Amino acid sequence: MCGIVAYIGKQPVFPILMKGLHRLEYRGYDSAGICIYNHNRLNIYKKRGKVSDLEEFVKDKDVSGTVGIAHTRWATHGEPNQHNAHPHYSQFEDLALIHNGIIENYQTLKKELIKQGRTFYSETDTEVLVQLIDYIRVSSRISLTEAVHQALSQVVGAYAVAVMSKESPRSIIVARKGSPLVIGIGKDEFFAASDASPIVEYTNEVVYLEDEEIAVLSLSAKGKPKMEITNLKNVKKVPLIQKLEMNLSSLEKNGYPHFMLKEIYEQPQTIRDSLSGRINMELNTVALSGVIDHKEKFLKARRIIIVGCGTSWHAGLVGEYAIEELARIPVEVEYASEFRYRNPIIYPDDVVIAVSQSGETADTLAAVKIAKKNGAFVYGICNVVGSSIARASDSGSYMHAGPEIGVASTKAFTAQVSVLMLLALALAKEKKMIKKSSLEQIVRAMYELPEKIEQVLKKDPQIADVVKIFTYSRNFLYLGRGYNYPLALEGALKLKEISYIHAEGYPAAEMKHGPIALIDAEMPVVVIATNRGNYEKIVSNIQEVKARKGRIISIVNEGDTEVKALSDFSIEIPRTEAILSTIIACIPLQLMAYHIAVQKGCNVDQPRNLAKSVTVE
Ligand code: F6R
Predict the structure, then answer these.
(1) Partner of 539 at 20 to 30 A CA spacing, among 198, 223, 464, 562?
(2) Could you give the dihedral angle defined by the CA atoms of residues 491, 495, 501 and 503, in that order, rounded to the nearest 10 degrees?
(3) What is the CATH number of domain 459-606?
(4) Over residues 84-89, mean pLDDT
(5) Known catalytic membership, residue 166
(6) The two domains 3-244 and 459-606 share their CATH topology (first three levels equal)
(7) Ligand 1: which of 264, 340, 355, 357 to mutate, judged by most atoms within 8 Å of the beta carbon?
């Protein structure tokens, strides 16, 4: 939520900031703004709307200069308008600041600053922070760096900030707590951003700032770069420089009309990558280093608690079914936001698995911290390398799905499920709960997943055609049983978030306990009917829908006849092992949501009110 980018060096700053904002726009797109130092002043330009609106707005402005900061906003405090857009000035325009996060005690601080004669021009918590820094700096006659230290010690909440000053234009101060911030080290230049995407084409050397660390990035008069990191207690820190592994082309649409479609089509490859090195075709076995290295923790686990939000929570539910079925370890799946506040019972012999694409979701990160505080072993399943959750976990496995830019999660979901299935198999193997022949069979099926996904992708034109008549439906119901129940939830979430059509996912048998009242001839019901175990049961559920004139779109296995005969439309997918079926069956659901949204004219990559990385509560 909110993206920040900063640059100090010798290159023209404007194109670097604008390109960075475009890359970070998935984090929020309510407004965008920049501040560039030139002609002895800090020049702020900001605009409500998208980064392209800002670009248009600054066309006739002087944006020369080599030092600057920029921000793309997902509104929390104050509506999305020009006043509330970042950067914010201090009272006399001596400082400019951008912020990602929430300052929780901003009201108290604001009242005090007003008493001290400060005037505010926005409703944001961010303006309070820049005014506070400036007030401390001026009233105590201390350096900007010291003022930033003191101000950040007073604030409660989460922040990633970048501050510029008119007096010291050869330096930028950045700091973080709770919100992500990465510094790129170039030749005679520094970059800072919410993630590495604005940095990757300039340097692959980065430092991930830790919580409560402050970095002063400066250039000497001769242009020599210097980075000094301290924590809030003023203790000097030695930066840990890491190599960035990110491919620039993964940040482009590469000819696809939308990132979401590109990411759906990438799934054969992302599944290959998430399984690579973890399954062995010759021995037909699985090896997940995170599990092998901490075998004792898993084998002694009283239970496993999976925490996540949204799509990641859905993947967690699929994980629960598989781990309980194969490894016979009790599993609970919790919304991270509930887990963190409901005073949960956590035993030291619990294993907590945190699932998160971004690795930055505030609630999931908080859940990890609570689990660790209670002595549980935390295993992170994240996509973004070096992200906060990955770093806060005791161990884990990356998903290797590559950058996901479309706000609706697609390839991350299938990669999350793949890793969770590997985990379930690895645990079952270690606990000797699975027969060698069954393990071999599932591993072989895992190898076949990418090819089977490719076969489903070939049905894209058919899927686009099927959903045409449902473009203006006002409600959708998604039903599934067993592994397909979490998938019903995921299918409904995909549709509602990008097409704004109300959709609900239900376990098929629950329909009779309420939702069946909704069914009439106007109600499309998507049924995922690929299970073999409870096939007859789902056939009965479909009949119940048909009897009330509901219209059935079914996802069935190739060769199915019974469900197909009852359905208005069917999409056939290749058969696979039950525990892997969601990885294939979710592809038509993603494509259905995508085509409905496109046909409705919605912005599928940047749906209204959403941001990809939810770094605030
Ligand atoms: C839905 C979606 C969200 C995320 C959720 C968690 O398409 O993308 O529901 O799954 O915000 O995000 P991560 O996985 O980054 O923790």
Answers:
(1) 464
(2) 10
(3) 3.40.50.10490
(4) 95
(5) no
(6) no
(7) 357
Q: Mind listing the pLDDT tens digit for each residue in 461-511?
A: 999 999 999 999 999 999 999 999 999 999 999 999 999 999 999 999 898
**Annotated catalytic residue, options 46, 50, 411, 612:** 612
Instruction: Could you please state the CATH topology (level 3) that the domain comprising 259-455 is classified under.
Output: Rossmann fold (3.40.50)
Helices 310-327/411-430 angle, 10° precision? 20
Measured on CA atoms in the order 301, 304, 307, 308, is the torsion positive or negative? positive
| Burial class of residue 532, CB neighbours in 10 A (0-12, 13-18, 19+) | exposed
> Measuring CA to CA, how many Å separate 412 from each of 95, 121, 258, 384, 406?
39, 40, 16, 10, 11
The yes-or-no answer on residue 2 being catalytic is yes
Which superfamily does CATH assign the domain made up of 3-244 to?
Aminohydrolase, N-terminal nucleophile (Ntn) domain (3.60.20.10)
Q: Are 323 and 424 in contact (CB under 8 A)?
A: yes
Evaluate whether 188 touches 219 at the Cβ level (below 8 Å): yes
> What's the confidence (pLDDT) of residue 610?
85
Q: What value does the mean pLDDT take over residues 304-317?
A: 98
**What's the rounded Cα separation, in Å, for the pair 30 and 51?**
9
Closest Cα to atom 16 of ligand 1: 356
CA of 407 to the centre of ligand 1 (A): 8
Mean pLDDT (the chain, rounded): 94
Q: What ligand 1 atom has the least distance to the C-alpha of 412?
A: 14
CA–CA separation, 606 and 393 (whole Å): 30
Q: What is the pTM of this model?
A: 0.88
- What are the tens digits of pLDDT across the range 511-535? 889 888 888 888 999 999 998 778 8
Length of the chain: 617
* CA 260 to each of CA 49, 179, 454: distance values in angstroms, whole numbers, following the listed order: 21, 25, 16
What is the CB < 6 Å shell around ligand 1? 309-312, 356-358, 361, 364, 408-409, 493, 497, 613-614
For residue 25, give the nearest of 58, 55, 48, 50 by alpha carbon.
Answer: 50
**Residue boundaries of the structural domains of the chain:** 3-244, 259-455, 459-606
Nearest Cα neighbor of 312 from 176, 461, 420 is 420
Residue 614 is given by DSSP the state -
pLDDT digit string (tens) for 231-282?
A: 999 999 999 999 988 778 788 899 999 999 999 999 999 999 999 899 887 7
Indicate whether 75 pLDDT > 90: no
Encoded tokens for 270: 């992302």
